[in-house]
Amino acid sequence: MSGHATRQATPPMLTLGTKLSYAVGNVGLQMLIAAMGFLLMIFYTDVALVPPAVAGAALLVGKVWDTINDPLFGWVTDRTRSRWGRHRVYLIYGAIPLAVVAAAVWMVPPGLSPVAAFLWIAITYTLFDTLMTLVQLPYQAMAANLTRDYDERTSLTAFASLGALIGFFAGSVLMPVLVRAAPDARTGYALAGACFGLAAGMAVAVVAWRVHEPVADEAAAPADPAPAWDSVRRTLLGTLRNRPFLLLVSAAGLVRLGLTLVQGALAYFVIYQLQGTQGDLPRLMAILLGVVGVSLFAWKRVVDRWEKNRAYILGLVFSAVGLVMLYWIQPGQQGMLAAVLALIGIGMGAHWIVPYAMVPDTIDHGHMLAGERTTGMYYGLYGLVDKIARTVATVVVAAVLDWTHYVPNVAQTELALQGIRTMTGLLPALCLAFAIPLLMAYPITRARHGEIRRSVGDVRDSQFAS
Fold it and tell me: Which GO biological process categories is it annotated with (predicted)?
């Protein structure tokens, strides 16, 4: 349905330079996320030779800290006052430390005992995760305040998603190429990790340099005289009363769980089920991400004409069908795998753009309910759910490999292959199917968003510096 007749007067639009500069940040951040999602576990098990259970348990340590740091850092950014803005200041000071710890994750010393390997992975990954939160959360929160227009948010998200796609391509496709170019895999991962860390730090610095938050956003920051813990608790409870946000974050968390299962298991699927090599991964990932990239602005046009939740549901249906088909692919069927990945990619295009355009709308709804705009807390909770889903998926992949007696670098048993197929196809499809009813219940339409903006007196956007 259209709903264009219910729109308000068009507010000032973001410049192309601002949208492109903002998108650069996603290039660097998603490089790190993709590389770790697709290759970190297989690096630990097949290159660093860390037992899967040890690697999975060590990664879990960082995610336990995540149960605190995402909402806590969100609350802190909501109350930050600086001459560089509420969110931009974290990008300025976080770029270099993030680059350093991102590189350290891929530098596991050889010959470590299981205990030493556990400690190394737990410490380096926890440091990385902390700095990633301190940078990524403010970066995402900036988007909600750069524009308040329902459709302009989708446009900004489309550019940001294009940047994310480029970064995702680099992390999943270029990293294996860099690794193979080195004398050995361990050296290759260390050098590629250093290059990716440097690139991510530079990308974050570009956003800090080129994208400035609206001056009016400073005045909208909540000023809470209550003690810190009481303020955190009150803000958190207020956020959890926002029903549209809870529906969206629950659905997006299920989708993230499913897609991270695919990321974590796909390398095992290609090498052991398809009986290919690591050299096949870049080509297959190029197909998947190429389709996602082509579909991004097509999905933007769909969202301009439909409601956002309906477009998201349609994308999930495409991906779920493809994931079910993935389970039945047999050894040597690389053409069939490429076709199925293309179908999955069409659906993934919706996930790359739509939920990130929906989060700011739920923040506006929360502003109407609570009378204050707590952008950081919303993105903190969204990031928390996202990272919990990633963690659960990583632990599931490690656990299934362990339960099915996976042995690296040899032909696998039928039990191990069945586990790999299930993690790559059926389980992710089930996660996406469970998200659909939640999105069907999501209540914020284009017309409803117009009512929300009028209720909080937000009838026009503030100007910004670019």
Answer: carbohydrate transport; sodium ion transport
pLDDT bracket for residue 228 (50, 70, 90): low
The model's pLDDT over 315-367, given as tens digits with 9 standing for 90+, comes to 999 999 999 998 888 888 888 989 999 999 999 999 988 998 899 899 888 88
Helix (H, G, I), strand (E, B) or coil at 315: helix
Question: If we measure between CA atoms, which residue out of 237, 261, 253 comes closest to residue 424?
Answer: 261
Q: How many CB atoms lie within 10 A of CB 15?
A: 11
Q: What is the pTM of this model?
A: 0.72
CB atoms within 10 A of CB 315: 24
pLDDT tens per residue across span 383-411: 888 878 987 888 888 889 889 988 887 88
Q: Would you say 425 and 324 are in contact if contact means Cβ atoms under 8 Å apart?
A: yes
Model confidence pLDDT, tens digit, residues 289-324? 889 888 988 898 898 888 999 999 999 999 999 999
Give how far the C-alpha of residue 21 lies from the chain's centroid of Cα atoms, to the nearest Å. Answer: 19
Q: In whole angstroms, give the CA distance from residue 388 to residue 312.
A: 21
Q: Rounded distance, CA 449 to CA 457, Å?
A: 12
Give every CB contact of residue 162 below 8 A, 6+ residues apart in sequence: 23, 293, 296
**Measured over all CA atoms, what is the biggest interatomic distance in the chain, rounded to whole angstroms?**
67
Most confident listed range (26-40, 146-160, 267-281)? 26-40
Contact 199, 108 (CB under 8 A): no
Highest mean pLDDT pick, 30-34, 68-72, 440-444:
440-444
> What is the distance of C-alpha 425 from the center of its chain?
20
Residue 355: phi and psi, rounded to 5, are -60, -30
Whether residue 343 contacts residue 322, with contact meaning beta carbons closer than 8 Å, is answered with yes
Q: Where do the DSSP E strands lie in 250-336? A: none
Place of tokens 């990239």: 293
- Looking at 217-335, which runs of residues are DSSP E strands? none
Residue with tokens 């994308």: 315
Work out the number of other CB atoms within 10 angstroms of the CB of residue 464.
Answer: 20
Q: What share of the chain is helix, strand, coil (3-state, %, to 5)?
A: 80, 0, 20
Assign domain 17-216+239-455 to its CATH superfamily.
MFS general substrate transporter like domains (1.20.1250.20)
Tokens 């990272």 correspond to 387
Choose among 43, 418, 434: nearest CA to 258: 434
Domain ranges of the chain: 17-216+239-455
DSSP state of 461: P
